[in-house]
């Protein structure tokens, strides 16, 4: 019965937005209340559940998205985005720009959290899209596929690390196996699949449209790249301390503080204010007006992401993930496939890749020793399953939709199918690797 309620609520949500033209933020809130009551959450606790989901989701990313939008706006207004796109085009040409962005997304996606990588790299890709009038979804999807794969498969991302710890798997070996599987997965779900969505017409957020300035007014190449990618460099450097033992508590605490994504973004924005703003002849007042405009453009996006988090929390609080896990635990299926299926089913119903992965891990853990399953491969199998079929109960779905300014149908056609391809190809890769290790 619970599964039927979830299915009806998801269909109703899609109809409200696509057919009824209801604002996605309001539609998500209405469905969150409806789903909570129908799934048996006490009426006096539904609101608390929605508030918790809204707050938890925005609490972790709102500052990153806001600061990222400000940085992206300044990069666009200063001409740095124009300079970066010119250099990329000279180096790779229009025919290879997809591959360049995909490789960039893969390399930078290993140390960066998905949300941070999305907020930093997508605006840079938009600068190429706008300046050379290229199809936005077609050009950017391979890079986003790279970010998704590294998020789901590779340590040091939180979910793979948590799964590896729970299964007693080697993090280093999991990373090696993950890269082996990730490379073909990204190529198929990225440039190859992107050819099927080339006809989708998208108009990305206006905030990231670069200024068309004369060459003598553009910042230098080094200044443009170093400033735009400073958050990436800082996060890479600080993430390396994860592998170093530091006994001095003061240094350890300082590095922990500096490695926080919000602090990194704030430092980067301060640097950009001077390197791309003041040093280029712009007044502080003019720079602050850019920042204000950027926040206006992302306000609705933040509300929609928060509302998606509210729906996800309601579904999690209803206990549906445990119900699904118990239902599937008794299926006589190979453990690697069963782990993928449990994670996939929970992901589709609840929307959270982390909840799906960790719930599936709790169910599958006893089978690993009984069935002599390679724990690193189980981490990757569950990680792949937790990415499948991202849709309206996932905040990533809405971030992609709103940044690219797509319809529901176009988002399903591009984002949801790409995520599903990543999940299926990842499972196939795990099963093939299982034959040799």
TrEMBL record:
GO annotations of cellular component type? plasma membrane
Kindly list any coiled-coil regions of this protein: none
Instruction: Classify the source by domain of life.
Output: Bacteria
Q: Name one Pfam family in it.
A: GntP_permease
Q: Does the keyword Protease apply?
A: no
GO molecular function, a single term: gluconate transmembrane transporter activity
Q: Which UniProt keywords apply?
A: Cell membrane, Membrane, Transmembrane, Transmembrane helix, Transport
Segments crossing the lipid bilayer:
58-76, 97-130, 136-154, 175-194, 225-245, 257-278, 336-365, 377-400, 412-433
Membrane topology value: Multi-pass membrane protein
Location relative to the cell = Cell membrane
Q: Main localisation, per the record?
A: membrane
The record's family statement is: Belongs to the GntP permease family.
Task: Extract the NCBIfam families matched here.
Answer: gntP
The protein's name is Gluconate:H+ symporter
Biological source species: Paraflavisolibacter caeni
């Amino acid at each position: 019965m619970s599964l039927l309620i979830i299915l009806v609520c998801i269909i109703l949500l899609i109809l409200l937005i696509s057919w009824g033209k209801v604002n996605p933020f309001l539609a998500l809130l209405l469905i969150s209340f409806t789903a909570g009551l129908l799934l048996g959450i006490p009426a006096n606790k539904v609101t608390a559940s929605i508030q918790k989901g809204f707050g938890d989701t925005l609490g972790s990313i709102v500052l990153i998205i806001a600061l990222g939008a400000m940085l992206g706006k300044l990069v666009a207004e200063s001409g740095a985005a124009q300079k970066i796109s010119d250099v990329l085009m000279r180096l790779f040409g229009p025919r290879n720009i997809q591959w360049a962005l995909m490789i960039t997304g893969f390399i930078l996606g290993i140390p960066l959290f998905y949300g941070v990588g999305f907020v930093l790299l997508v605006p840079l890709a938009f600068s190429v899209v706008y300046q050379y009038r290229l199809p936005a979804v077609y050009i950017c999807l391979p890079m986003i596929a790279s970010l998704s794969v590294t998020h789901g498969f590779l340590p040091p991302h939180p979910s793979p690390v948590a799964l590896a710890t729970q299964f007693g798997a080697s993090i280093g070996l999991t990373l090696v196996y993950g890269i082996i599987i990730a490379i073909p997965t990204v190529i198929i779900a990225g440039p190859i699949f992107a050819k099927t969505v080339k006809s989708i017409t998208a108009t990305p957020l206006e905030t990231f449209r670069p200024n068309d300035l004369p060459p003598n007014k553009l910042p230098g190449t080094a200044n443009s790249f170093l400033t735009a990618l400073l958050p990436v460099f800082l996060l890479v450097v600080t993430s390396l301390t994860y592998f170093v033992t530091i006994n001095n508590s003061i240094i350890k605490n300082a590095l922990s503080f500096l490695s926080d994504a919000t602090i990194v973004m704030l430092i980067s924005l301060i640097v950009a204010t001077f390197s791309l703003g003041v040093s280029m002849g712009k007044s502080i007042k003019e720079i602050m007006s850019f920042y204000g405009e950027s926040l206006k453009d992302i306000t609705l996006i933040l509300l929609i992401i928060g509302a998606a988090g509210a729906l996800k929390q309601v579904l999690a609080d209803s206990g549906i993930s445990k119900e699904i896990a118990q239902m599937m635990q008794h299926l006589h299926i190979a453990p690697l496939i069963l782990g993928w299926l449990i994670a996939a089913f929970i992901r589709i119903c609840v929307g959270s890749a982390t909840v799906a992965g960790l719930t599936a891990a709790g169910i599958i853990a006893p089978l690993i020793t009984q069935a002599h399953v390679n724990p690193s491969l189980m981490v990757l199998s569950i990680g792949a399953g937790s990415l499948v079929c991202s849709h309206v109960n996932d905040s990533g779905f809405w971030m992609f939709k709103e940044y690219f300014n797509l319809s529901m149908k176009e988002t399903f056609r591009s984002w949801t199918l790409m995520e599903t391809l990543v999940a299926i190809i990842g499972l196939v890769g795990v099963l093939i690797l299982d034959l040799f290790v």
